């Protein structure tokens, strides 16, 4: 008799209706009786794991085999992220109940014409007043870079945060200034959320339509659609309120923006429209 009974498919909450991800650090995730239990430094509480969009595990966490199985049975992705949310390391593969989406994703990615069409649809969301068909993908990448740099400068002025450019060293976060660390923290959390949603829907993180390097190019494609309305303003707002914030306020503000934008409901619809 399993200690955690696998929920029936029809009882699982769809990704769009789930709660925002929960971030945990310095504690143990395990199964107790019929539920998932988190044992933290000074608290113990049960997690409604089947209604959470993702479990984000920070430093100092351990997770039992039974807890991972329970998350998998509930179609709840698990992601490993760095201290203060500064890095996104990996995600746990989640089972999907059929392989329709992976087959569709792979077929579209393998077709060069279709791949370019989907990349243009993604760029069209950033440039709604521009006919993206007249530009090459390389030109659109350049336009996107200029647009993002202008957005950074605009947010710096809006929130009164000194902005000297996007500069950070992945091997040494302490060399970056506060706003660059805040941006990295916000983006890492957004990547984890996007990975959780994409995996729960059956998309393939390794097959990107705009990005093509690394292990998560599709996650970067998807996250770029929403940075301007989520992670970017959350980071600048956090540093304007607490210049020495270590990531906690950034995550709180990011969570608020994700809820305001109804991102968990919006993302599946956007992906359905883009990946066709």
Helix share bin: 40-55%
Largest sheet: 4 strands, mixed
Total helices: the number is: 9
What is the distance, rounded to the nearest whole angstrom, between the alpha carbons of the first and last residues?
42 Å
Q: What topology emerges from the helices and strands here?
A:
Layout: E1 22-24, E2 27-32, E3 35-40, E4 44-47, E5 55-57, E6 61-63, H1 65-73, E7 78-81, E8 88-91, H2 100-110, H3 112-126, H4 137-159, H5 178-201, H6 217-224, H7 231-241, H8 248-260, H9 263-274
Parallel strand pairs: 1-5, 2-6, 5-7
Antiparallel strand pairs: 2-3, 3-4, 7-8
Helix pairs in contact: 3-4, 4-7, 5-6, 5-7, 7-8
Model description:
The protein has 276 residues and is α/β, with parallel strands linked by helices. The protein is built from 9 helices and 8 strands. It has helices at residues 65-73, 100-110, 112-126, 137-159, 178-201, 217-224, 231-241, 248-260, 263-274; strands at 22-24, 27-32, 35-40, 44-47, 55-57, 61-63, 78-81, 88-91. The strands form 2 sheets. Strands 1-5-7-8 form a 4-stranded mixed β-sheet, with helices on one face. A 4-stranded mixed β-sheet has the order 4-3-2-6. α3 (112-126) packs parallel to α4. The longest helix is centred in the last third of the chain and has 24 residues, at 178-201. The N and C termini lie far apart (42 Å).
Short note summarizing the structure:
By secondary structure, this protein is α/β, with parallel strands linked by helices.
